[in-house]
Amino acid sequence: MHQQKKQQDLVEGNLPVFVFPTELIFYADDQSTHKQVLTLYNPYEFALKFKVLCTTPNKYVVVDAAGAVKPQCCVDIVIRHKDVRSCHYGVMDKFRLQVSEQSQRKALGRKEVVATLLPSAKEQQKEEEEKRIKEPLSDSLFFEQSFQPENRTVSSGPSLLTVFLAVVCIAALMLPTLGDVESLVPLYLHLSVNQKLVAAYILGKLILEFMWRNRHGYENSSKEE
Fold this sequence. Notes:
By secondary structure, the protein is of the alpha+beta class. It has four helices and nine strands; from the N terminus they run αβββββββββααα. Strand 8 and strand 9 (109-118) form a beta hairpin.
């Protein structure tokens, strides 16, 4: 089973390539970073040939750009940045490591490594620190905005006193008038015409007040929207 898997990887060119690190960062103000080392590991039971390719070979010097790695061994590949200029700051270059068997020319696997030149390690640390500070702040603001209640005037219903007065006025209007002999309601509950006019007047005022409040609240809500 293991042998079949190996043969399939060899045929399809999907052999995993183990390289460390997977990213190279050069700092213009730190000359010690202008030379860096890539380590290629060979965990397999057969030897590998390797070749290092680059998207911008004129900017780098690769020591031992081609060679071999014994089974279950590793090899160091030294890469020097030779064109440290401000025009190259932030530009991402790529190295590709291709591996193949000793007896074959076809690549069995490949791995890409990104290389970037930055002006200063201190500036990079400062930018990362500012980014870490801003990210929680943005999350906090977003959280508060998401859950901030709307400051909107909503028309409230009539108060309990208004409802009570309206019920009293309606009841007064339904009571019999003085002089109504055929009514079964006790005489002391009979109201005069003037009393009923007062009740009707108060009920009308309450209805107008309620309608005005509803209309005013609706207009304020529409303006805010």
